[in-house]
Design brief:
Distance between the termini: 19 Å
Bound molecules: pyridoxal-5'-phosphate
Number of helices: 11
Mean pLDDT: 97
Helix content: 25-40%
Oligomer: single chain
Strand content: 15-25%
Largest sheet: 9 strands, mixed
Order of helices and strands: EHEHEHEHEHEHEHHEHEHEEEEEEHEE
Structural class: alpha/beta
């Protein structure tokens, strides 16, 4: 752990850089907007904690009405459970002896469920759960268009569910049906088309299982780009958006117009400083690839007019100034909007919470680097 970039009470301009800062008011408005948007709908909210990796944020989400959190890795779940979070769905497959041992140990301390998409993994989980004397909750992950994990809907999912129901160490809970790429389709009609297909596959599989006497208590999925569609589908029982709490440059390119979804605000920024200014049009900041993920595009420059983040190398970011931009100066602090919030957060040990221009709190990103 590095020394902290700030102290409580510091002005924004005194925060050392690069640093990850959170606008507390925008963050709170995002949290409230999510809960308000599904208020009255028969849907539970289980935010994805892989976006923030921060138990303080998970506690706040649960206090605001979330039923628990999602994690993506066993070690990530462990960081949250050790910090006192009691209800976790690992929305992913956990394969391998060491990981399963960790999972089973956690399932003895907290309410924990995990996804499966293969009979061999189900058998391994079953054996470990029986040895520990517990029943582990499992959801079958369906492939509904993301071309990532997941078993084919319909017959293959039914066969796996039937096998799981015969396993005394497992408790079949239902289905995980998440369509990741659909979240980032730019227009609502494209997102609706993709989610309608995913929902139909999920509905058909749920009904097929029901015909064979297998009840899906939970049907989980959805992200920031589409969650209202799943929430209104009468198929999903839980939504699991993550990025909504922060937002990022990629999500800002979605068209939210007439989507019936709340328009979330940017609450997460990288604070950076100009460290070189060879001429007025070529400023270099101290945030490069190690301070911001670029998998979904370069960061955007917040606050300044006509200044663009041009390129990133390991420790440097080059800004280009357009004709309408004001003069920049050496040492100037600039806020960047990360291209993609999740992998950017994973680069930092702490979130510096800022309110009205001053540091109000520093929240450790305890699950940072929890990749196993
Ligand atoms: C399984 C699963 N659920 C939910 C999410 C949340 O998505 P978002 O951060 O876009 O809201 C993700 C993100 O990749 C995911 O993999």
């Amino acid at each position: 752990m590095q020394h902290s970039a700030a102290q409580i009470g510091d002005a924004l301009a005194n925060i050392d850089t690069p640093a990850l800062i959170l606008d507390r008011s925008a963050f709170e408005r995002n949290g409230a907007a999510l809960m308000a948007s599904v208020n009255g709908l028969p849907i539970a909210v289980r935010p994805h904690a892989k976006s923030h990796k921060c138990p303080e944020i998970a506690r706040r989400q649960i206090a605001a009405g979330a039923v628990g959190i999602c994690c993506q890795k066993a070690s990530e779940a462990q960081a949250f459970i050790e910090a006192g979070i009691q209800n976790v769905l690992i929305s992913n497959e956990v394969v391998g002896e060491k990981k399963i041992a960790r999972l089973i140990a956690m399932a003895q301390q907290a309410e924990l469920a995990v996804c499966v998409d293969h009979i061999e993994n189900a058998r391994a989980l079953n054996t470990a759960a029986i040895a520990a004397g517990i029943r582990l909750g499992v959801l079958i992950e369906l492939e509904v268009g993301a071309q990532r994990c997941g078993i084919a809907p319909g017959g293959p999912a039914l066969a796996l569910a039937q096998a799981i129901c015969q396993m005394p160490g497992l408790r079949f809970l239902g289905l995980q049906s998440y369509h990741g790429p659909a979240q980032h389709l730019r227009t609502l009609s494209e997102r609706r088309r993709a989610i309608d297909q995913a929902t139909q596959l999920t509905r058909d599989t749920r009904d097929l299982l029901a015909k064979h006497g297998i009840v899906c208590k939970n049907i989980a999925g959805a992200g920031t780009g589409s969650f209202m569609l799943e929430a209104c589908s009468s198929v999903y029982t839980e939504i699991q958006p993550g990025s909504y709490i922060f937002m990022d440059a990629d999500y800002s390119r979605n068209d939210w117009h007439d989507s019936g979804m709340p328009v979330f605000e940017q609450s997460l920024f990288i604070l950076t400083s100009i460290m070189s200014l060879r001429d007025p049009d070529h400023a270099v900041v101290d945030a490069g690839l190690k301070a911001s993920s670029v998998d979904s595009g370069l960061p955007l420059v917040a606050d300044l007019v006509d200044v663009r983040f041009h390129k990133a190398s390991d420790e440097h970011g080059v800004l280009k100034r357009g004709p309408k931009a004001e003069k920049m100066w050496l040492g100037q602090k600039i806020r960047l909007i990360p291209g993609h919030c999740d992998p950017t957060v994973n680069l930092y040990d702490e979130l510096i919470v800022v309110h009205e221009g001053r540091v109000e709190a520093i929240w450790p990103i305890l699950a940072r680097g929890a990749l196993r």
